Structures are given as structure tokens and as C-alpha cells.
């Protein structure tokens, strides 16, 4: 099983949309909790990492930070 790396600046697509209708979010902060910013309305959302991994559909755009 591959462990995926998530970096600040990545654009991710979630399984469920934000109330504004947008499914894409930008990762603002990583750690125990993940802080996301909605691409549609700029609303900030924080969630625990396990919930984030469960709700993640795919990485749309990678920030390519090493």
C-alpha cells in the first residue's frame, strides 16, 4: 500500500462538494489536521487527516514541492 504525500499548495478534488457547489480545494496547512481553502468561495475548512484521506477523490494539481 502506497502512502500518499500531500503538500501545501496542492489542489485536490473531494468526493462531496462544498455547499457552494465546488469540489476542488487548495491545501493550506498539513499536519494532524488538514486545512483546506475552497477554490469556489475561498471558505476555510479544517478536518482531521483520516477524514481527509477518506473524503479525497484525487489530486488535481500538485505544487511539486520537494
Structure description:
With 66 residues, this protein is mostly beta strands. The protein has one domain. It is 11% helix and 41% strand. It has one helix and five strands, in the order ββββαβ. It has one helix at residues 49-55, and strands at residues 11-14, 24-29, 33-38, 44-48, 56-61. A five-stranded antiparallel β-sheet has the order 4-3-2-1-5. The chain is globular and about 30 Å long. The chain starts with 10 loop residues before the first strand and ends in a 5-residue tail after the last strand.
Give the SSE layout.
Layout: E1 11-14, E2 24-29, E3 33-38, E4 44-48, H1 49-55, E5 56-61
Antiparallel strand pairs: 1-2, 1-5, 2-3, 3-4
Task: Give a short summary of the structure.
With 66 residues, the protein is mostly beta strands. It has one helix and five strands. It has a five-stranded antiparallel beta sheet.
Number of discrete helical segments: 1
Shape: globular
Summarize the main sheet.
5 strands, antiparallel
Q: Please state the CA-atom Rg, rounded to the nearest Å.
A: 11 Å
Strand content of the residues, in percent? 35-45%
Percent in helix: 10-25%
Which class of secondary structure composition applies to the elements? mainly beta
Low confidence ranges:
none
Strand tally: 5
Number of domains: 1
Q: State mean pLDDT (0 to 100 scale).
A: 89
The neighbouring-strand order within the major sheet is 4-3-2-1-5
- First-to-last CA distance: 21 Å
Element pattern in H and E? EEEEHE
Amino acid at each position: 500500500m502506497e502512502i500518499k504525500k500531500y503538500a501545501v499548495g496542492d489542489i485536490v478534488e473531494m468526493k462531496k462538494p462544498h455547499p457552494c457547489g465546488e469540489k476542488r480545494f487548495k491545501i493550506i496547512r498539513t499536519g494532524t489536521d488538514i486545512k483546506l481553502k475552497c477554490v469556489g468561495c475561498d471558505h476555510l475548512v479544517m478536518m482531521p487527516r483520516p477524514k481527509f484521506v477518506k473524503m479525497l477523490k484525487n489530486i488535481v494539481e500538485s505544487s511539486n514541492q520537494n
